[in-house]
Amino acid sequence: MQEELRGRIYQDDHFVVSDFSDVILEGLVGMEDEEDGRPVIVFIKIKGKNWHRFFLDAGYGFWENWEEEELDKEEWAEDEVVYVDYIEKYNIKNKSIDSVFCKEDKITIQFKNKDQFVLQTITLSDMDSSSEINFIKNDLQEDR
Contact 85/29 with Cβ under 8 angstroms? Predict the structure, then answer.
């Protein structure tokens, strides 16, 4: 079995997270600013892996693995951020992930059913712009 990469894995404007293809989503949690509700960091958990985190800053996507087995929500309250369970919010528990990639100021989780969870920069021309979540639901019925 290949050892999992640790630390900052990606810091670029285009990348594909190959370890997160054809896997089952177990956790997707946002650390959102208490005042404006904008996501600061998003944490993702898939079967058999630690929590990974991703975020956007200054036109780049970041993907990290700091070997977090559990999320410390008490620490978040001290940082004036709130915990948001995106799995519950978007009803995506145990969804199968097709791919995860960063392109054009967005980090996208593409699910097998073509739904998308997108973390994107609000104002592309502003390097200090906040991010927002856009959940794109595939309303087309797939053949079974």
Answer: yes
Count Cα atoms within 13 angstroms, Cβ side, for 31.
21
Q: How high is the mean pLDDT of the chain?
A: 89
Distance, CA of 98 to CA of 46 (rounded, Å)? 12
CA–centroid distance for 35 within its chain: 21
pLDDT at position 144: 33
The pTM assigned to this predicted structure is: 0.89
Say if CB 32 and CB 39 are below 8 A apart: yes
Name the nearest CA neighbour of 120 among 32, 64, 61.
61
Averages of pLDDT over each 10 residues, the chain, 144 residues: 73 95 96 93 93 94 89 74 94 96 96 97 87 90 42
Query: HEC string of the chain?
Result: CCCCCCEEEEEECEEECHHHCCEEEEEEEEEEECCCCCEEEEEEEECCCCEEEEEEECCEEEEEEEEECCCCHHHHHHCCEEEEEHHHHHCCCCCEEEEEEEECCEEEEEECCCCEEEEEECCCCCCCCCEEEEEECCCCCCCC
